[in-house]
Amino acid sequence: MVPQVTLLYGGLLGLLVAALGINVTLVRWKVGVYVDPAAPPKKLFVAIRAHGNAIEWTPMLVLMMLLVELSGGSSWWLHVVGGLVVLARVLHGVGFTTRLRTSVAGAGLTWLVAVWLPGWALWLHFVPVK
Predict the structure, then answer these.
(1) CATH classification for the domain delimited by 4-126, as one of 3.30.930.10, 1.20.120.550, 2.60.40.1180, 1.20.1340.10
(2) Whole-model pTM?
């Protein structure tokens, strides 16, 4: 079985992480800093942290989605969760890299899904899908 739902959201989140990484490179060019100094310019620091935060959260969320999908979790609910993860990470990334105040909502949604997915995985372990 190919995990179609996880492929979709893993791909979308991979593109988001790549976009945030490209943003770091573009900011480096703009500010002329190619090797991280002890105290990078604020704009570069923000770009690095936006990318770093996505790298810190995204792999675990995609892995949990994969485990739930391979364990028989509902595709419909996985699409709901996957959509929330993408929304959360986009809100966080946009809020972090612009003046929009969406990063708090993105962080809150990320935390919600970061608790929901492991809880779902544990539920599937103890109450297997028939």
Answers:
(1) 1.20.120.550
(2) 0.92
Q: Using one digit for the tens of pLDDT, what is the confidence trace for 80-108?
A: 999 999 999 999 999 999 989 999 999 99
3-state secondary structure of 20: helix
Q: Is the dihedral of CA 58, 2, 116, 93 positive or negative?
A: positive
Per the CB < 8 A criterion, the answer to whether 95 and 104 are in contact is: yes
The span from the CA of 88 to the CA of 55, in Å, is 14
Sequence-distant (≥ 6) Cβ neighbours of residue 92 within 8 angstroms: 50, 53, 54, 102, 103, 106, 107, 110
| Token pair recorded at residue 29 | 């060019």
Q: Cα separation of 103 and 29, whole Å?
A: 25
CB atoms within 10 A of CB 106: 21
